[in-house]
Amino acid sequence: MPDQATVHRIAVLGTGRVGTTLARAFARSGYEVIVGSRDPDALDEERRGQLGEVAVAAFSEAVAGADVVVDALPGEHAVEVVSSLGDLLDGVVVLDVANPLDTSRGMPPTLLVKDTDSLAEQIQRACPRARVVKSLNTVNAAVMVDPGSVGDGDTTVFVAGDDPAARELVAGLLTELGWRDVLDLGDLTAARGIEMWLPLWVRLMQILGTAQFNLRIVR
Amino acid sequence: MPDQATVHRIAVLGTGRVGTTLARAFARSGYEVIVGSRDPDALDEERRGQLGEVAVAAFSEAVAGADVVVDALPGEHAVEVVSSLGDLLDGVVVLDVANPLDTSRGMPPTLLVKDTDSLAEQIQRACPRARVVKSLNTVNAAVMVDPGSVGDGDTTVFVAGDDPAARELVAGLLTELGWRDVLDLGDLTAARGIEMWLPLWVRLMQILGTAQFNLRIVR
User: Fold this and answer.
1) How far apart are CA A83 and CA B35, in angstroms?
2) How do the domains of chain B map onto residue ranges?
3) Nearest by CB to B203, which of A185, A198, A215?
4) What is the ipTM metric for this complex?
5) Judged by CB atoms within 8 Å, which residues 81-110 of A form the interface with B?
6) Cα distance between residue B18 and residue A209, in whole Å
7) CATH class of B4-208
8) Is the peptide bond before A109 cis (omega within 30 degrees of 0)?
9) Residues A13, A81 contacting (CB under 8 angstroms)
């Protein structure tokens, strides 16, 4: 297992609820965290307040020197943003937590990519030397950083990526967030199934009346 | 809740592992069960042996007089077969357990329909007066009829369909098979998410080395 001590700086791309929630959680764990934004000066006071002491910078400034870059961008912008970062992501572990949701035709969302491809694979192709790992996109922001808040036991989170050491490094970060059932699904094509979970998640949220739920793989 | 006593005869379309497993389970529960086949005379001895006392007939003969028709056909043939049955399915509860898997390009399978449509909705459109309910396609045949064989507790099975009474009738059949966590997801568009679970299921089967697993929705 790779030494988590090799991770010092984490850049989180995206200033939405997922980005701010993850940034604060990683900061609480003791990492140096910086949030990347398209326009840091345009960030409203509420978002900045939610981030506390966490710094905000332009995307390219945020990722410079980061050991892990978290993609918490809206799915429709993720490929464009990571592509714009060019070789800044070479060798960097990119934790992709985004979902390729198309909300342009209202609710429920449909998927921008599916079945024979995935957002995570698009990101990997856009940044061939990044070490992309898909994870955490299967739960809402609150559950991502507090998995013990769901039910009375351990629920499951998946990791998938072509680089086994990157998967293990992300699994270590997940363990620090409180996840105990981290299921390694192997190479990045598993992201197809992981992302296609979302339509069922959306329906479950509507039926259950809450986003505070998750699946457990019982075997 | 509709009276399960109104269900006397169940027709199971399909002589594969799912069809024969469900047919035997419903027969054990005391229903009059008949299996529908494209060519009943071509059924090999092994399949016929697996069916025990359960009769096999041509599709149209099997569904005549049935209160519930189970679609356990290969996904690529389901719409064609139910379409051919015309008004024989009027008012009948059609329990669609099939998955729209495309295995023509090898493993893993891709999906023949997804995201903005589903196999269950295609079947409903082909037979507008049938009462289509999607369920059970999220687990393998052995788990369908013996849900207690997975893990040490209750795992989840979904039902979706446009007719609430049909969903409740199917939920009653599932309870008889041993299911205790039957989650009603509402109208038939929920089948999109339920069917898009399959690619993740296939990867999990590969990683876990068994099909004896299921998800539990923890809330």
Assistant:
1) 55
2) 4-208
3) A185
4) 0.96
5) 108, 110
6) 33
7) alpha beta
8) no
9) yes
pTM assigned to the model: 0.96
- A-proximal residues of B, 188-207, CB under 8 Å: 189-190, 192-194, 196-204, 206-207
- Give the Cα separation of A141 and B151 in Å (integer): 28
Q: Is A148 in the B-facing interface, judged by CB distances under 8 Å?
A: no
CA dist A139 → A12, A65, A142, A197 (Å) = 17, 29, 8, 10
The confidence score (pLDDT) of residue B1 equals 43
Strands in chain A per DSSP E: 9-13, 32-37, 55-58, 68-71, 93-96, 101-102, 110-111, 131-135, 156-161, 181-184, 214-218
Q: Which two tokens stand for residue B61?
A: 């003969």
Q: Do A197 and B194 touch (CB under 8 A)?
A: no
Q: Which residues of A87-125 are buried (b: 16+ CB within 10 A; e: fewer)?
A: ebbeebbbbbbbbbbeeeeeebbbbbbbbeebbbbbbbe
pLDDT tens digits along B20-31: 999 999 999 999
DSSP letters for B123-190: HHHHSTTSEEEEESTTS-HHHHH-GGGSTTS--EEEEEES-HHHHHHHHHHHHHHT--EEEE--SGGG
Q: Give the DSSP H/E element, type plus range, for residue B27.
A: helix B17-28
B125 touches chain A (CB under 8 A): no
